[in-house]
Amino acid sequence: MDEVSSSKENSTSDEPSPTTASPSATQSLPHLTPSGAAHMVSVSSKPHTIRTSIAVGTVLFSNATPISLIRSNSLKKGDVLSVSRIAGIMAAKKCPDLIPLCHPIMLTHVGVELSIFDTETGHGGIQIEAKVQCEGQTGVEMEALTAVMGTGLSVVDMCKAVDKGMRVQDVRVVLKEGGRSGVWKEEGWVSVVERE
């Protein structure tokens, strides 16, 4: 997920560096004990800071019908964008129920943006961007990713009657702020909010 670090300050992170070719002996997966057993990582000693994560993903359509019906709000199940936005917000709040080792976090903000796009070679799709924030001791990357997936699955559910070949793809974290590792941003990423 972490592909390119945008600054040298991430070198002091307690997470593996995205540019490291092979992990050193001091690096390990935090959800594993020394004996290899899975456990919930203790965040008791971490400071309370404002933490932000943004994740993105895309639903690609395999024919032109979904975009046409979404734009005219003519799908039988209703307003795809509004319903899917709510689905993403609800998914973020359910993250610790779905991912076994995630901490229950008091989220202070969940925002989901959906943007319809056309392509020259395909049938277009929907770009999803989820921003999640909290004031706490651990980050909200998983909540942002879960929001994107919940949104994408809702789009699929609402459009599956007219498109059997949809794809949910390119789901990833593109921005992380707060905590010891500071700010990380995917190189070249621009928010849909800034593009519109």
From TrEMBL:
UniProt region (Disordered), positions on chain: 1-44
Biased composition (Low complexity): 13-30
Iron recorded as keyword: no
GO molecular function: cyclic pyranopterin monophosphate synthase activity; GTP 3',8'-cyclase activity
GO biological process: Mo-molybdopterin cofactor biosynthetic process
Top enzyme category: lyase
Domain of life: Eukaryota
Documented EC number(s): 4.6.1.17
Keyword vocabulary terms for this entry: Lyase, Molybdenum cofactor biosynthesis
InterPro entries, per database record: MoaC, MoaC_bact/euk, MoaC_sf, MoCo_biosynth_MoaA/MoaC, Mopterin_CF_biosynth-C_dom
Domain Molybdopterin cofactor biosynthesis C (MoaC): 40-179
Reaction equations catalysed: (8S)-3',8-cyclo-7,8-dihydroguanosine 5'-triphosphate = cyclic pyranopterin phosphate + diphosphate
Keyword Lyase applies: yes
Pathway(s): Cofactor biosynthesis; molybdopterin biosynthesis
Protein name as catalogued: cyclic pyranopterin monophosphate synthase
